Amino acid sequence: xxxxxxxxxxxxxxxxxxxxxxxxxxxxxxxxxxxxxxxxxxxxxxxxxxxxxxxxxxxxxxxxxxxxxxxxxxxxxxxxxxxxxxxxxxxxxxxxxxxxxxxxxxxxxxxxxxxxxxxxxxxxxxxxxxxxxxxxxxxxxxxxxxxxxxxxxxxxxxxxxxxxxxxxxxxxxxxxxxxxxxxxxxxxxxxxxxxxxxxxxxxxxxxxxxxxxxxxxxxxxxxxxxxxxxxxxxxxxxxxxxxxxxxxxxxxxxxxxxxxxxxxxxxxxxxxxxxxxxxxxxxxxxxxxxxxxxxxxxxxxxxxxxxxxxxxxxxxxxxxx
Length: 321
Known about the structure:
There is one protein chain. With 321 residues, this protein is α+β, with helices and mostly antiparallel strands. It has helices at 17-28, 35-55, 124-143, 178-187, 195-202, 229-235, 252-256, and strands at residues 6-8, 14-16, 61-69, 76-85, 88-95, 99-103, 109-112, 118-120, 150-157, 162-163, 174-177, 208-212, 217-224, 242-247, 261-267, 270-276, 281-286, 293-296, 300-305. It has an eight-stranded antiparallel beta sheet with strand order 16-15-14-19-12-13-17-18, with helices on one face. The protein has a five-stranded mixed beta sheet with strand order 3-4-5-9-11. A four-stranded mixed beta sheet has the order 8-7-6-10, with no helix packed on it. The two termini are 40 Å apart.
């Protein structure tokens, strides 16, 4: 049949042949991960995991990929780790670089990779110091006073195969390798917890993660699941992450069905199963992209949507799905 022919499957549902073919091929296509970025993500996950273990006895609370609103410049800014203990807040920028780097007169970090390439990472220390000031200012505004928080900016270089310049110690931040950073959490007892500070940091959201078939991870903000009113109603008002796994049958029977793929969603203790008709897509603003885009559900393996932020723009609830 021609591409304009509408086939009818054994459920009596009609579908354009070209659309059916495209949907079937999308489900079978692999999207391999970006190995360089993946290595950095795995290093961040490792540091967060071992930080929780190391800091537990002394009462440190670890939050990863914390996103805060930028009132001056617009949008949101990400902080790799924010760690709260007592009345102390560690604002951590992790770098898993290899090779070496230099810091020029403008405090730009210029990395020299072992493969011979060079990359200018701009003013790493200035950026994380600004995020720290923004975060403590938002906390003070939320509690209505200067809470006297001890804010420390930490640069954590976690790759053993990295040579540091001596002037990195002149920046005013705490500079640690992985072992030194873990030692800080193990050795320092920050004292009685400032519950209001913990509430402030816990109220910010993190990135949503969408894994494509083959392992490529997309991070950003999921704006619309695209699954219809019943699913939106089921998960509206949630106060827990929303996770989901997708099953994509690849045989000829899946080609004949208009709803071959299944999605299992979970939030808190609740779960739901949904069918994914052909052409279904979610709307997502991926980090680094100028504008939101549609991601076909046929290409998605799993999702992990963060808890909606309580501190979206200084305490206003977010509108995440």
